[in-house]
TrEMBL record:
PANTHER family: DEGV DOMAIN-CONTAINING PROTEIN DR_1986-RELATED, DEGV DOMAIN-CONTAINING PROTEIN YITS. May bind long-chain fatty acids, such as palmitate, and may play a role in lipid transport or fatty acid metabolism. Pfam families: DegV. Keywords: Lipid-binding. It comes from the Bacteria. InterPro entries: DegV, DegV_C, DegV_domain_contain. It comes from Tetzosporium hominis. This is Fatty acid-binding protein DegV. One of its GO terms (molecular function) is lipid binding. The keyword 4Fe-4S does not apply.
């Protein structure tokens, strides 16, 4: 069984090779240049461009890419699962469903599930890891898809951004809110609910917002000392390490995965974004 994911997982390229997961790279556009995310450009380069004043744009996987891959799989009598970036943040999921359904017209026995992760960054990555785990247990396509669906409600996402201007450019917050937020040094705390970015609190100062993220992990997480907590950052490793240290001190967390937020999401949240992902139920 093939498992697919796109570059919004923020998992490193090495993961895809080691876990036998196929990558669908999203597209990154800077000035007149068009890149395949992770393959043609890396996140650090994107953050450097943003700091230079550029405004990168991103786009979804092309319908042709999905169609060609799904047709090849069907012709070979293979099966698969694509865990997709949240349908509330990208059109990739809906495009993949349309292309899968088109292939089914020619190959009605094609076993292929497209799952809307309703997640982003390493929260999405955690669900891809779950799909790999379920596949290794010998489950069917339907069972893997169902297991990922169950896990969606068990993964918590909390994050903040350093500068609201980046989200204003992407239409995530109003320009007025961004301007006032910048003047007052206000840092938003956001949550992902049903695949959407939902602002839940406003906190004054970077130090206080990191402290609040730690509190939210304690309020929503279980068995934190027995699970891997995932942290992603917008080219701010120091903040990620600070969050890691505070989580270890507060809850005895021992296992972490820390990654830079990739180009697909980093283009919209900007440098300095900080996210934490964890399970809200025992695994």
């Amino acid at each position: 069984m093939k498992i697919y994911a796109d570059s919004a997982t923020d998992l490193p390229l090495s993961f895809f090779a080691q876990a036998d997961v196929e990558l669908f790279p999203l597209r990154v556009h800077i000035e007149e240049h068009d890149y395949e995310d992770m393959l043609g450009i890396n996140a650090k380069e994107v953050y450097d461009k943003i700091r230079e004043g550029h405004q990168p744009k991103t786009s979804q996987v092309s319908p042709e890419t999905f169609l060609n891959e799904f047709e090849k799989l069907a012709k070979n009598g293979e099966k698969g699962v694509y865990v997709a970036f949240s349908s509330e943040l990208s059109g990739t999921y809906n495009t993949a469903v349309m292309m899968r359904d088109q292939v089914l017209e020619t190959y009605p026995d094609f076993e292929f599930a497209v799952v809307d992760s309703k997640a982003a960054s390493l929260g999405y990555g955690m669900l891809v890891k779950k799909a790999v785990e379920l596949r290794s247990n010998g489950l069917s396509v339907a069972e893997v898809a169902e297991g990922v669906q169950v896990a969606i409600a068990q993964v918590e996402h909390f994050f903040t951004v350093e500068d609201l201007d980046y989200m204003a450019r992407g239409g995530r917050v109003s320009k007025t809110s961004a301007f006032v937020g910048g003047l007052l040094n206000i840092k938003p705390v956001l949550h992902v609910e049903h695949g959407k970015l939902i602002p839940i609190e406003k906190v004054r100062s970077r130090k206080k917002v990191i402290k609040r993220l730690v509190e939210l992990v304690g309020e929503h997480g279980v068995n934190l000392d027995k699970q891997t907590v995932h942290i992603s950052h917008g080219d701010d490793e120091q903040a990620a390490e600070e969050l890691k240290a505070l989580l270890t001190e507060a809850y005895g967390v021992q296992q972490f995965e820390i990654q830079m937020i990739g180009s697909a999401i980093g283009a919209h949240v900007g440098p300095g974004a900080l996210s934490v992902f964890f399970y809200n139920t025992a695994q």
